[in-house]
Design brief:
The chain is an alpha+beta fold. It has nine helices and 26 strands.
Length: 469
């Protein structure tokens, strides 16, 4: 999930409350709903001469991109870069993907921050704003070489320059993962070194990976294994020109480039070495891990099973009171709207359309304590109903029997559903993909336990890497 920060006007994100939205939903649903053809575009970002917000060192900047929703006029987060320490001229490795519509004006806004609280990077109120810049997406598309420089400002004062380079993503790219380990053998340097990998496109090189800093041991510099999407590294074209740049590491962030060599990934697969001024760069353990697409799993016989869990905590409001999310006025009931809008799409991928329906955060008849996982039809051993119409029927029939309570705990229902899915895997039904749709109104009150349960499910319930048996 990514933090989405709505606003009006051009106020800083530090003054806005976060709303959680998935990046895919953000791009496809909120920003560009109803639009026609588009061009997938990646924005590569760097900054120059940033205003320094630190006293004893340099700023630790990162950049957030916002798009203006054409319907509401609100600014919505589209992505953000990584943090680069102690650097007023950062070149960010992480790009931001957007969709460019020729026929539309697409206002966008960059906000550059200095990290003040690393434990709360998603909370922009706890970071210090360096500067902002607004532009139209077509400006960078139409700029010479698709490079646009934007002046940054903060409260009317110059705060540096943001450099933007747009790259069109022309082909449908795979989900494959490239694995490689890089060493520098025969090195005589005593200082730590790091490297960056670049991908060529249209005569320019774009950064796609930066290693950690490592020091020579017995004449060899060893860096961690790299796992990077093949689409990012070489755009699924192993003959594409790549570049490795070696740097002398600086704790102040101003890493000094000392050498650069061009190569092709196809050559690396055959056991490739590059001679540099500081030793021989050796590529080891090189491979490409094939990752199947969603459609390939479906074509391979993967069965999809949908389950729905509904929040009945007291914060939703009394159903008999106007404004309740569980309003007895079905035309204004937001849970019904959400179940129908999302469920009717997902059920088309469910093989038998038998959907388990659960509730959480309420007291059920005959039990005094709050239940955080119960079958809405009253039968925990057979909680399925048929189709979304069946879901809505059991919801309308049983909602009035519940006493809304709290808190909003997710862990128990995720654990139950995980066990349910694991039972299928344990019985040899490995080609089942389970979707748990949880519809809720508020914050999770057992966040740590929820994360633990998700981690357990991920460990035991990952799909095979190939969709075919």
């Amino acid at each position: 999930m990514c933090g989405c920060v709505p606003s009006s006007g051009s106020s800083s994100a530090a003054d806005r409350a976060p709303v959680q939205v998935s990046s895919e939903e953000l791009i496809t649903s909120q920003l560009f709903a109803d639009s026609g053809l588009f061009t997938a575009t990646e924005l590569h970002i760097s900054c120059e001469n940033l205003a320094n917000k630190d006293v004893l060192s340099k700023s630790d900047p990162f950049v957030v991109l916002y798009c203006r929703d054409k319907r509401s006029g609100q600014w919505t987060e589209a992505g953000r870069t990584e943090v680069i320490d102690n650097n007023l001229n950062p070149v960010f490795v992480k790009s931001i993907a957007v969709k460019y519509f020729f026929e539309e004006r697409q206002p966008m806004r960059f906000e550059v921050y200095d990290v003040d609280d690393r434990n709360n990077l998603n909370n922009l109120k706890k970071q210090e704003l360096i500067g902002t810049a607004e532009f139209m997406l077509h400006e960078v598309i139409r700029a010479k070489d698709q490079i646009l420089r934007l002046p940054l400002s903060d409260k009317g004062k110059s705060a540096g320059t943001l450099k933007l380079h747009a790259e069109e993503v022309k082909e449908k790219l795979s989900s494959d993962i490239a694995h490689l380990t890089i060493e520098c053998n025969g090195s005589t340097v005593s200082y730590p070194m790091l490297y960056r990998l670049f991908r060529s496109d249209g005569g320019s090189f774009f950064p796609v990976y930066q290693s950690e800093a490592s020091r020579s041991t017995n004449g060899n510099i060893l860096w961690h294994q790299v796992k990077i999407p093949a689409a990012s590294l070489f755009r699924d074209d192993q003959s594409r020109q790549l570049r490795i740049e070696l740097y002398e590491y600086s704790s102040k962030g101003s890493h000094k480039p000392v050498d650069a060599k061009d190569f092709q990934f196809s050559a690396v697969l055959d056991g490739f070495k590059l001679g540099t001024r500081f030793g021989t760069v050796v590529f080891k353990n090189v491979s490409v891990e094939k990752r199947a697409s969603f459609l390939e799993y479906l074509f391979g016989g993967c069965q999809i099973s949908l389950a729905i869990a509904i929040d009945f905590t007291g914060s939703n409001g009394d159903p008999d009171v106007p404004g309740s999310l569980h309003s007895m006025n079905m035309a204004k009931n937001q849970y019904i709207q959400a179940i129908r809008a999302i469920g009717e799409t997902l059920q088309e991928y469910d093989s038998d359309k038998n959907i388990p329906v659960f509730g959480f955060g309420a007291k059920i008849p005959g039990i005094a304590s709050t239940s955080h996982c119960f079958a809405l039809n009253g039968n925990i051993f057979a909680p399925e109903v048929h189709t979304i119409d069946g879901v809505l029927n059991v919801y309308n029939k049983n909602m009035g029997k519940l006493q809304f309570s709290g808190p909003t705990n997710f862990a128990e229902i995720i654990r139950y559903f995980g066990d349910f899915a694991y039972w299928h895997v344990s019985n040899g039904l490995v080609f089942n993909y389970f979707v748990l749709l949880m519809i809720t109104d508020g914050l999770i009150t057992d966040m740590e336990n929820t994360i633990d349960e998700i981690a357990v499910s991920y460990t035991h319930l990952t799909l095979p890497t190939t969709p075919y048996v």
